[in-house]
TrEMBL record:
Pfam families: SBP_bac_8
InterPro entries: Bact_solute-bd_prot1, SBP
Record protein name field: Extracellular solute-binding protein
Source domain of life: Bacteria
Length: 458
């Protein structure tokens, strides 16, 4: 199955500002305690509308309005899933309330959870925030593991475990995930004397992110004028560190990022890439990064499945067929979310049914076909809509197979409550300062650590 061009990414049909908000929601976002914003306003309030109070539907059941709070574009409305559910359940009316950016959405969600009011019947939670809620506030959520129709064995084990609390309660059902590959320019590889067949390219760095940097050195030695091997070192760091089970926290919850093998190895690889002049020194999602796609100034980018649509849009039709996708050196994940049902929901039973249905394999596969949101359901990965998917823009790459294989090999990551603060500062205060400002790796590391320590002490 070839994904239609309008479905190459969840936000493909959205305005530019909304698209940027969506892609940024998949990056680590700062968790700052802020006052509730007007954007979330009354839209997140749960419960029935006044018109529903004594009304009954054609199936004889009392009418219920379910509110769904999300950030960015989840695609349920765009893919027609809400409409389908309402047809199957005439007594249900669904109202989605979307906030563009998770950095606005999540602090407000925390405040509403603390107050025990103002919550939607279903609340989406980003992967970088799910551990904090599962660790500190598990009792605020319905245990979805006990919900009728939920099939634990139908989820990728590592995704299921991300939402599990210490007492065994599972506070959310997985929606999408972000298995990683490496997107590369075939024309630039050819000019640098490297193979262009995706299987041969994958073999160049199979099993070790250090081999990816080795290939970068080979490319740099014969690089076409005005090009670099990779966009920036933060993408390399993110891909490498995400391929380890333990990075910032140990299994017992101890903060270990300063001496973590994952962090130090990934940091050293990023520094090697910068010092070897293999990077374009670009910050992802900035204007210059977008222009780099359009102008073909870098040959590779570490790309989760959801990034393909973004690349297609920014690189444009003039570069169609030049980009391809190969397997990443090691399986890793970037992004993904969950649907939760707060205990304070006024329509818990109906909300659980809707959340269960939206995250079932058939709906996940349909959402992938329509919006390119890669499924977290292992059963969905076997359905033709996913397993047979190709991407015409990326030289008809078999993206269903490439990303499914990656998804099955992703380690069960040990998540911690401050993962996003650590990751953001190591990238922005650390790596980018070496890359863009010429700071020494030692000074940049120390500056990032200080920033992290100060943030964790607050």
């Amino acid at each position: 199955m070839v994904l239609p061009s309008a479905a190459t990414a969840r936000p493909a049909t959205q305005p530019a500002d909304v698209r940027r908000g969506l892609f940024r929601r998949r990056r680590a976002t700062a968790r700052l305690a802020v006052v509730l914003t007007a954007a979330l306003g009354a839209g997140l309030l749960a419960g029935c509308s006044p018109d529903d109070a004594d009304a009954t539907a054609s199936n004889g059941k009392k009418k219920v309005t379910l509110s769904v709070g999300v950030f960015g574009v989840f695609g349920y409305k765009q893919a027609g899933l809400y409409d389908e559910y309402e047809k199957q359940n005439p007594h249900i009316k669904i109202k989605e309330n979307s906030t563009e950016r998770n950095e606005d959405y999540y602090p407000a969600l925390l405040n509403r959870l603390s107050a025990g009011s103002g919550l939607a019947d279903i609340q989406a939670v980003e992967v970088s925030n799910i551990n904090e809620l599962a660790t500190l506030l598990p009792a605020k959520f319905v245990d979805m593991a006990k919900a009728e129709g939920v099939d634990q064995d139908g989820y990728l084990p590592w995704k299921w475990d991300q939402a599990k609390a210490a007492d065994g309660r599972v506070i959310g059902l997985g929606t999408d995930i972000g298995p990683m590959g490496v997107c590369y320019r075939k024309d630039l590889f050819a000019k640098a004397g490297l193979p262009t067949d995706r299987a041969e390219v994958g073999k160049l760095w199979a099993g070790d992110w250090a081999k990816y940097v080795d290939v970068g050195a080979r490319y740099t030695a014969k690089a076409p004028k005005g090009t670099s091997f990779m966009d920036g070192a933060t993408g390399l760091y993110n891909g490498s560190v995400s391929s380890y089970a333990e990075k910032n926290y140990a299994a017992d919850g101890t903060l270990v990022y300063k001496k973590s093998e994952a962090v130090r190895t990934s940091w050293d690889l990023a520094m090697r890439a910068v010092e070897g002049k293999m990077t374009g020194r670009l910050k992802q999602f900035d204007t210059a990064w977008d222009q780099g796609y359009a102008n073909g100034t870098f040959a590779t980018v570490v790309c989760p499945s959801w990034m393909l649509g973004y690349i297609k849009e920014k690189a444009g039709e003039k570069n169609a067929g030049q980009w391809d996708v190969a397997a990443a050196p090691r399986p890793a994940n970037w992004g993904g979310s969950f649907l939760t049902v707060p205990e304070a929901s006024r329509n818990k039973d109906e909300a659980v049914k809707l959340a269960t249905w939206l995250t079932a394999p058939k709906q996940q596969a349909r959402l992938f076909r329509k919006q390119a949101s890669f499924p977290s359901s292992s059963r969905a990965l076997e359905l033709p809509e996913v397993a047979d998917a190709t991407h015409e823009y990326f030289a008809a790459a078999p993206i269903g197979r490439i990303f499914s294989d990656a998804a099955k090999g992703i380690p069960t990551a040990i998540l911690g409550p401050k993962d996003q603060i650590i990751g953001q500062n190591l990238a922005d205060v650390g790596i980018l300062q070496v890359e863009q400002q010429g700071r020494s790796p030692k000074d940049a590391w120390n500056a990032a650590v200080k920033k992290i320590d100060d943030a964790l002490a607050d």
